[in-house]
TrEMBL record:
It is found in: Cytoplasm. This is Actin-interacting protein 1. Keywords: Actin-binding, Cytoplasm, Repeat, WD repeat. PANTHER family: WD REPEAT-CONTAINING PROTEIN 1, WD-REPEATCONTAINING PROTEIN WDR1. One of its GO terms (biological process) is locomotion.
Amino acid sequence: MSYSNLSIWACLPRTQRGQPIVLGTDPKGKKLLYVHANSVIIRDIENPSIAEVYTEHSTQVNVAQYAPSGFYICSGDQHGKVRIWDTINPEHILKAEYQPLGGPIRDICWSPDSQRICVVGEGRGKFAHVFMMDTGASVKGDLSGHTKAINSVSWKPTRPFRIATGSEDSKAAFFEGPPFVFKCTKGDHGKFVQSVRFSPNGERFATGGFDGKIFVYNGSSSDLDKELGSPAHKGGIYAVSWSPDSKRLLSASGDKTCKVWDVESGDLVADFPMGSDLEDQQMSCLWAGNYLLSISLSGFINYLDLDNPSKPKKIIKGHNKPITRVGLSPDKSTLYTTGVDGTVTVWDVATGDNDRIAGKGHGNHVSGLVVKGDTIFTAGIDDSVKYIDPVEKTYTGKSISLGSQPKMIAAVDDGIIAVTTQEICVLKDDKKVGSFPISWDGLCVSAAGGGNDEVAIGGADNLVHIYALSGNTLTEKKTLEHLGAVTDVEYSPDGRYLVACDANRKVVVYSLPTYEKFNKIEWGFHNARINCVAWSPDSLMVASGSLDTMIIIWSMTQPNKHIIIKNSHPQSQVTGLLWLNNETLISVGHDGLVKTWSVTF
């Protein structure tokens, strides 16, 4: 019995309007580094379907940066803690943990020799701190000079060493050292200074602010060199990033554009219009090797094209909010995932490439997903079921209104069954043809299919309700009692069993047609509410995913044995499971990740 993680399809950066995102890259410019909730994501830039995730912070992570050596990453969180961990081992072994500030850390920079770290953010009267990477000992000096929280920091990569910072007091500050001593502040910006970055050759540093202005200063003396543009952007600037040759500068703005500047001449080299919607605001940018990247408010990662600024080379999509449901196309080549923000993402199973379903969807939490033939059905908390065209990858505009909030939908031979908090709905021919009020909250539904007219519905009343479906009419046949709310049900592919899981941490398999407990056992090794169950195609294994972050594989042929995948989605509950084949399992969770597992019993 064994398992292994085959792939991780990463979530997008977690975005918030008005809050810049800090991106990082390794010294070779091959990896993209960003944060999402409690996780740090390391993503291959050339092939973004290759990713690693670090999840050891106990609270929201705000920033992570590679050491110039490439051997370590330092990440800082909302509580002022930093963790320094290695990048070589898959386990990302912890080197050290310190708490240099008493409040959120907003930016991090390393000294060129990878021995010292400077962190900035909010603190109890202290907004910046420099310390030794190995010991945590404070580097002597004075990093005062700002009166409000510091948003950005950069360390001059060549001698003599300098540190530049940008703050909410609308000033940039300049420090000489080590030990670092305050030299001066720069009051050229009229609003928050959001991004400060030294050029790779150390000759200049640039600042970008919410006033839409970019200023370039001498890297050794801090004398003002020039302003780029007049102003550079019509909206606030969230980030600036230098080209590897230190000759050009990339900027990202809330005016929904990115721009590239020739620093020597001050000329605009390229203007990238990213769209007209609110979600097209540009929250960050990074020049990594030959790649120019930006992050939209939607979380999308844009690959900018200097040769064709009008259109990105590529846009990486996905989820930056919790995933709720997962479904698979009949030919098993395409995966569909839905989110609490109303988004639906389509994935190529072979490559991990993805796209976002277009058109007007639910706008909020998607609670149901069914892939049926040439149509995909989704249910949302806008009390409707909507249709998606999988070929065009867009909502069709068709919608069926329900009487109350749907919790799950399932396919029957000639339609859809929707279970809501107040009724069970039979949907056929683009309309609701049957409605059956219930006195308990419906939570989940599964239809036997294959000529069997039975439908199983799990409720918050701790019962599995078994119905017979005849035409458009449901008739209740029996109930199966659990000790907690029934959270998911699924009939086996061979039609011989029904599996149900509940909030009391139990997985129960029932044998059809009598619905007696299989082998008179209940499986119960989870530590919290079970959210989902899934049958393998050969009906010999059941997978269950839980609030406890675990996935457990149960065997029908060896009922007393099981495989536990601990921390399958660390610090995140598992919300959906499905089998690609009898050896491969796909899982999704509140962390926005899609994971593929190899399972051998």
